[in-house]
Fold this sequence. Notes:
Blueprint: E1 2-5, H1 11-21, H2 33-39, E2 53-63, E3 66-76, E4 86-94, H3 99-115, E5 120-123, E6 140-141, H4 145-153, E7 157-167, E8 182-189, E9 197-204, E10 207-216, E11 229-237, H5 246-260, E12 265-271, H6 275-284, E13 287-298
Amino acid sequence: MLIRSYEPGMVGELFSTYNRAIHGVPHCYPIQEEDLAKVLTGVGTGEGSQGKLRNEALLVASKNGSMIGFVHGAIAEAKDERERTHGTIIFLWYEPGKREVGQRLLEGMQDHLLGSGADEIRAYEQEFRYPFYGFRHAYLSHHLGHVQGLLGMNGYSRVRGEIFLDWPRYEPIRPGPIEAGIEVRVELREGRGKMPGVEVRALDAGDQVGFCGSISCGEFSRSPEVQDWIFTDSLNVRDDHQGRGLGKHILRRSLQEAHMIGYRNAAISNDWDNHRALLFYSNFGYHAVDWTHSFARRWQTP
């Protein structure tokens, strides 16, 4: 087995390896070579490709001339006094059954990040995820359980999580009556997808008391099969208006409007410990399909 540092000439094989890695992961779709090349522009330059990163590096594992794993990481600068500079593993994958490959890659990236001044390493943070990896808010999928297991065996702990639910071929339900005095407004917003996103606002005497924001899943992928998926990434109701069915009303209205303009599949997510949201969405019609987590490990400093 050979571990090498990434060079631009590897991008063709690397994008094929990435597509193999995400096969079977819900709502991860094959990418083109240029998609990956774009997010790797900072590797080895010292600058970082996402503005907040430095010392960006990518290690590739090969055997008999074939790529069997890779790890991409960097130093993430603290944004303010509440944050701290740390190492981040953006993506790690190795072929299932080849644990020694994953171990070598992980140890190599740890050495790089610790040697760059980090005393904490986080893996699969939302902020630094590949823009084409899953839908917004995604961490490391449990469908990549061998990677989660490797991190756990190396002292990393789960620190955050997001549950993804979807509703293929959904049939919209007409929103029921709404409490007196509430006005509902709908606005379509163009984005990178073939169809616009849908924003639904509930107003009480002009004040916003509820909001449902849904975007095209074409925001995350150029794949044709994702263009008729709508992802609801924001649903909230002001505290003094909860318990009156307003959240259900504006979500139904959002899905109804989305269906009218051509969407046929719906997805949504919630925080790993938001049991109330999981109960609500599951009873609404969605089904949980993926549990995703970020991980972290601290090192003792002298």
